[in-house]
Structures are given as C-alpha cells and as structure tokens.
UniProtKB/TrEMBL annotation:
CDD domains in the record: FReD (cd00087)
Protein name per Swiss-Prot or TrEMBL: Fibrinogen C-terminal domain-containing protein
UniProt cross-references to InterPro entries, sorted A to Z: FIB_ANG-like, Fibrinogen-like_C, Fibrinogen_a/b/g_C_1, Fibrinogen_a/b/g_C_dom, Fibrinogen_CS
Coiled-coil boundaries: 15-49
UniProt keyword list: Coiled coil, Disulfide bond, Glycoprotein, Secreted
Length: 314
C-alpha cells in the first residue's frame, strides 16, 4: 500500500512538473508569437522602405539625362574608328533611346570631320536634335560671330549648338524645325516648320525655312520681316536688311535679322518677362505671342522631315 502511495506521489510530482513545463512553454510560445508579430512588422516596414527606394531610384533614373547606348549595328569593331550616328533620330529609328526624356550623345553629320555632343529629345515617334535652349538666363547670348559659329553654353542648361553644326545637320537631308516656347503666364506655344535648312559660312549661314503650322503663330516666315532668306548677323557681323544700323548690335543677340525681326529667340533673358526699356525690345521674343514680353523658355529642335510616301506605299 505504501509502495502504491509512493508511486502515486511520484506520478503526481511528475505531473505537476509537466504541468509547470507546459505552462512555461505556453509563455514561451506567447513570447515567440509576440516576437514573430514584431518581426513581421519590421519586415513589412523594410519592404515598404525598399519599395519606396526602388521607386525613387527608378524615377531618378528616368528623369536623369543618360548617355544613350549606340545600337549594335552602328558600332564597328574596335580596330576601326567608331561610326557615329548622323543625328538623334538615327539612333531612335535604329531602336535606341526608348524612354521619353533627354539623352546626350555624340553625333557626326555626314560631312562633319569630328563628332560633337548633342542633346536629344524623344517625342512623337522621333529623336529630335536640340539646337537651342533657354530657360534660366544663366548663359550670355550676346556673343560674336565665332561663338555663334562654333556654339556655346551647356547642353544640360542653356546653349546654342553652333551655326556650323546646324548647317551640317540640316544639309544632309530635308529637316523640319520645332520650336517649343513658354511664356511667364505658364502658357505653352509651339511652332513647326516642315522645312528648315541653314547654309554654310560662305553664305553667312543663310536661313531657309517654310511650311508653318502650330499654335504660336508664325513669327519666322510671316510676310512682315520674314527671316527666311536672311543671313545670320552678330554684333561684329552686319548681314541684315537694315541699311543704317546693325540689328545684332542694337539688340545684342545673334539671329537671322531682317529689318530687324519678328522673332528673337536668342535675346536677353528677363525674369518674369519684363523689359528694362519698353522701346528696346531685346528680350526673348516671338511677336505673335507677345511683342513686348520676353519668353520664359524656348527650345528649338530638328529632325529629318518624314519622307513623302510613294503612291504604292499608301
Ligand atoms: Ca545693317
């Protein structure tokens, strides 16, 4: 009997130990669950941070100008000198520069001896080569003949691509011109010309432009003071139609002055569009938008004119 009692006592002690162990394990499980919840919350927060970081990185990458890779068929073996695209559109039409935005690449028009860097914009199924940009007034556009000939400024800010480069680009094919402008009221204007060509220096970089359409109004080939057929002038080279004066010296910028202008996109940058002197219209002007208020930003860009379709292609 005693033996049975002892056995029962031992069993009872064992059961109590087991019960205690189960209770302590239950506490441990509760703690583990709590830890697991905390971990899950940390992981969730981390993945949110990673998502946000990835999104920011992608946005930065897409917004940031990048060097566009040259399509493989335009790259030659390393033993030969590299072949450069003749303009931005050649890269785009070859399958490069697929994202909307700005690209900086080396281009080499067919008769050019050296490649030069160009800003490309992808718009409306074409790669546009930008030849002029104004937007913050940091660049001085009162420049002499040589500066306008070779180009000046910063492609990532304000610049003139250079009359020689513009001439080489626009004489290798038929080109069209697109001008995008914004005024200080935030309105955007555009003017397109189906044909745009600049002759060489021997013709003083004469302008040939025609075929206006857009919403800005035509201030380049309009009847009064048309710029088409005009030679380029700078303050040190008077090639304009004003007999008694040099328009470029009077207004400061290099442009295809007539007597003197309907448009003046290389004029002085005036914050908020206001001029110092109402009678000296030396701002960034497009008369059909406003004759006396300087524009906030401009971009002039070109691309090969779309080829007219032959009857059997329509
Ligand atoms: Ca003159």
């Amino acid at each position: 009997m005693n033996e049975t009692r002892n056995t029962l006592h031992k069993e009872s002690v064992t059961l109590k130990r087991l019960q205690h162990r189960i209770q302590s394990q239950a506490v441990t499980i509760d703690n583990l669950n709590a830890n697991f919840d905390a971990l899950e919350s940390i992981v969730n927060n981390l993945s949110r941070i990673v998502d946000k970081f990835e999104w920011t990185m992608r946005a930065n990458l897409e917004a940031r100008p990048v060097d566009a890779p040259i399509p493989p068929h335009l790259v030659v073996p390393t033993t030969q000198s590299p072949i450069y695209p003749r303009d931005c559109d050649e890269v785009y039409q070859s399958g490069g520069m697929r994202y909307l935005g700005d690209y900086y690449i080396l281009v080499k028009p067919e008769r050019s001896t050296t490649p030069f860097r160009a800003l490309c914009k992808i718009m409306e199924g074409a790669g546009w080569t930008v030849i002029q940009r104004r937007h913050d007034g940091r660049e001085n556009f009162t420049r002499d003949w040589e500066d306008y000939k070779h180009g000046f400024g910063d492609l990532q800010a304000e610049f003139w691509l250079g009359n020689e480069n513009i001439h080489l680009l626009t004489t290798q094919d038929d080109y069209e011109l697109r001008i995008v402008m914004e005024d200080w009221d935030g309105r955007r204007h555009h003017a397109e010309y189906d044909r745009f060509r600049v002759s060489g220096e021997r013709s003083n970089f004469k302008l040939h432009v025609s075929g206006y359409h857009g919403n800005a109004g035509d201030s380049l080939t309009s009847f009064y003071h048309s710029h088409s057929g005009m030679e380029f002038s700078t303050y040190d080279r008077d090639n304009d139609r004003r007999l008694y004066d040099n328009c470029a010296e009077h207004y400061g910028s290099g442009w295809w002055y007539n007597d003197c202008y309907e448009s003046h996109l290389n004029g002085k940058f005036y914050p908020h569009g206001s001029h110092d002197n109402f009678f000296i219209r030396d701002g960034i002007l497009w008369n059909k938008i406003h004759q006396y208020a300087s524009l906030k930003s401009t971009e002039m860009m070109i691309r090969p004119a779309p080829k007219a379709k032959l009857p059997n292609e329509i």
